[in-house]
Amino acid sequence: MQTLLPDAVAVAAADVTPRTQPQPRRVSVSMARAPRRESDPKKRVVVTGMGVVSVFGNDAGAFYDRLLAGDSGAGHIDRFDPAGFTTPFAAQIRGFSSEGHIDGESDRSLDDCQRYALVATRKALESAGLALGSTAMDNIDLERAGVVVGSGIGGVKEFAAGVESLVTKGPNKVSPFTVPLAIPNMASALVAIDAGIGFLGPNYSVSAACATGSHCIHSAADQIRLGRADVMLAGGAEAAIAPVALGGLAALGALSRRNADPETASRPWDRDRDGFVLGEGAGVLVMESLEHAMRRGAPVLVEYLGGAASCDAYHVTNPSPDGYAASLCIKRSLEDAGVAPEEVNYINANATSSRAGDLAELKALKQVFKDTSLIKMNATKSMIGHCLGAAGGLEAIATIKAITTGWVHPTINQFNPDPAVDQFDTVRDVKRRHYVNVGISNSFGFGGHNSVVVFAPFKR
């Protein structure tokens, strides 16, 4: 295992490969001719609902309206006293309420990670015409309905509280909820346990750092494609704006220190970017086989075409500077989707605002897309910050809204664009009208985890 440097992200800023790090083997991977797209309605996967919990509220439409407006969700933390932290700001959710979605007794015992997941799930089911207690929900075959909702960290605050109790009060005072509510799979489990949902089908979590949400989406879709489920809930949740997570990420040098101006701190592709802004929330999709959706007359939003995963196999926190494994992931996602690179004209980029990460992703994209003249590419994290395990779910929803509305949101805070991004239209500062033919959403995380999902307008 390579040594994790105290300021690993900052060290990578020079975009050079330290001589002490082994070079992964490279093999030639050509983009094969895209196969025919899936035609079997039992294997075609569509999105019929989506739910969010975000710094911009808990309504998917309002969430996207704020993105289109180019608003920033970053501000100084008031959930706890951030005095002494090198980065005292984040894209913190304020005024969150689970009323009407979680009963009071359960709500008091949960970590925010699970609260966000449960509320986003309820909202997603409602938008899919599957409100709890409805006839449509009652007609779901629970044995063929599952959940894949993940978290990069899990119940951070619950675990931190357990440690504090251990240190200050002794082992007999540690809450029995500490472990169950800290483990990353509990959001997925509680969604199924939730009264009125009770899905009995495949249920697990993928925990792959910042690639978690996208991993969960394509993993859930595969359950439908393989004939194991008719309907799946998929996405990610995270609630890491807590002292231990903020302090740990700051120690890595991962966070922006633009303390005097938090709203402009997240600067994807800007020459003066200095790290990401920590965010939180949840994004959950309702995914169904086309056959199942049509049988119940569901509101089909978009079609999920494919997805893929890869690993940099390079470093604990730094991306591989050459972007090779990320490009491999993009290529494989397009092959899985039956899509040629020329068909893609929208990219929701990972674009965290880290010096090394932004450049590595650009290199990956340039290896796949030779002609970028028709592509619009934007960075949702410029406004909502980096939501870690929830990022893939929230950014998939932003991608879906771009397809369904015909508007792509801007990337804000591009004051001094990096020359490396010159060949891409990054939708600088103002939303644009754009018909999305095929859109991809990139998610890359610590450990070199890469995940990409592909969506397109639904066509019979």
Topology (elements, then pairings):
Layout (H helix, E strand, L loop, with lengths): L7 H4 L33 E9 L6 H10 L5 E2 L12 E2 L13 H6 L2 H16 L7 H4 L6 E6 L5 H14 L8 H5 L3 H8 L9 E2 L7 H14 L5 E8 L4 H10 L28 E9 H6 L6 E10 L12 H14 L8 E3 L6 H14 L7 E3 L2 H4 L6 H15 L1 E2 L23 E2 L5 E7 L3 E9 L3
Parallel strand pairs: 4-5, 4-6, 9-10, 9-13
Antiparallel strand pairs: 1-7, 1-8, 2-3, 6-7, 8-14, 11-12, 13-14
Helix pairs in contact: 4-8, 9-15, 12-13
Protein architecture, described:
The chain has helices at residues 8-11, 60-69, 104-109, 112-127, 135-138, 156-169, 178-182, 186-193, 212-225, 243-252, 290-295, 324-337, 355-368, 381-384, 391-405, and strands spanning 45-53, 75-76, 89-90, 145-150, 203-204, 231-238, 281-289, 302-311, 346-348, 376-378, 407-408, 432-433, 439-445, 449-457. By secondary structure, the protein is α/β, with parallel strands linked by helices. It has a ten-stranded mixed beta sheet, sandwiched between helices. A two-stranded antiparallel sheet has the order 2-3. Helix 4 (112-127) packs across helix 8 and helix 12 crosses helix 13. It contains 15 helices and 14 strands.
Keywords, separated by commas or semicolons:
460 residues; alpha/beta; 10-stranded mixed β-sheet; two-stranded antiparallel ribbon; 15 helices; disordered N terminus; fatty acid biosynthesis
Q: How much strand? A: 15-25%
How many helices? The count is: 15
The proportion of residues forming helix, as a percent range, comes to 25-40%
Listing every helix as H and every strand as E from the N terminus to the C terminus, the arrangement reads HEHEEHHHEHHHEHEHEHEHEHEHHEEEE
Rg to the nearest angstrom? 21 Å
Strand order of the largest sheet: 5-4-6-7-1-8-14-13-9-10
Apparent shape: globular
- The overall strand count is 14
The stretches of 5 or more residues where confidence is low (pLDDT under 50) are 1-25, 27-32
Largest sheet: 10 strands, mixed
**Overall average pLDDT:** 92
Oligomer: single chain
The secondary-structure class comes to: alpha/beta
Q: First CA to last CA: what distance?
A: 50 Å
